[in-house]
Amino acid sequence: MVQAKTELQARARELRLAGKTYNEIVAELGVAKSSVSLWVRDLPQPRKTAEQMHLMREARWAPHRQEQAIKRDQTKRDATHEIGRMSDRELFLVGIGLYWSEGSKTKPHSKEERVVFVNSDPGMIQVYLAWLSLLGVKPDQLQYRVMIHESADISAAETFWANLVGVDVAALSKTTLKKHNPKTVRKNVGEEYRGCLAVRVLNGADLYRRIEGWWYGIVLAARPTA
């Protein structure tokens, strides 16, 4: 019995010197915490490992982070309710700004007047399609194309976008694949990565000219009056 106790005491000291806490030693040896304290009290306080320091920091900051997360979510919910329903006029103006930010535009060296909108955000696509509908663009005037890295789940992405816009996968144009570069560290990976969807309005030259005119009208209206 004395020998067993001596062995436990020696083992407790080894564990303490290895940086173990009292609770960890108690759990491993199955002895009382008071015994462990008595056996190792003359040993210096062990330096905490990097992992232990990380866990301590996480435990200290976890309540603060949770509080901040709750505040962020509440702010977003409040802001969402501030919008309410949009009038046709509001959607009309939002759509113009949306297109002029994300849609294709003519350039001095290329005067192609095409209405093509490309985005990876499903919400942006939905708002854009609602805007096109407001303008009287019919579903059969739209052409959809998925654009995605070749290393991604192409089939899943095609299904996702087709479901979002309400067409069969077979109705999508041939997917554009971006070559995979192993040297590039991409962060847009995983199940949530679905590439982009390009939405083109067929025979959209006249619509493009109107969009450009609308945008310049907004610019003029936003200028301060003399």
List keywords for this structure.
single chain, alpha+beta, 4-stranded mixed sheet, elongated, Resolvase
Describe this structure in words.
The mean pLDDT is 89. The chain is elongated. The protein is of the alpha+beta class and 226 residues long. The chain folds into two domains: 2-40, no CATH class; 88-222, no CATH class. Helix 5 crosses helix 6 (122-134) and helix 5 (88-102) crosses helix 8. A four-stranded mixed beta sheet has the order 1-4-2-3. The protein has eight helices and four strands; from the N terminus they run H-H-H-H-H-E-H-E-H-E-E-H. The protein has helices at residues 2-17, 22-29, 33-40, 50-83, 88-102, 122-134, 154-165, 205-222; strands at residues 115-119, 142-149, 176-178, 196-201. 55% of the residues lie in helices and 10% in strands.
Which secondary structure elements does this structure contain, and how are they paired or packed?
Elements: H1 2-17, H2 22-29, H3 33-40, H4 50-83, H5 88-102, E1 115-119, H6 122-134, E2 142-149, H7 154-165, E3 176-178, E4 196-201, H8 205-222
Order of helices and strands: HHHHHEHEHEEH
Based on secondary structure, the structural category is alpha+beta
- Mass-distribution shape: elongated
The overall average pLDDT, rounded, is 89
Instruction: Report how far the terminal alpha carbons are from each other.
Output: 99 Å
How big a fraction of the residues is strand? Answer: 5-15%
Total beta-strand segments: 4
- The main sheet orders its strands as 1-4-2-3
Number of helices: 8
Question: What is the gyration radius calculated from CA atoms?
Answer: 31 Å
Outline the biggest β-sheet.
4 strands, mixed
Query: How many separate structural domains?
Result: 2
Q: Which regions contain 5 or more consecutive residues with pLDDT less than 50?
A: none
Give the % helix: 40-55%
Protein name: Resolvase
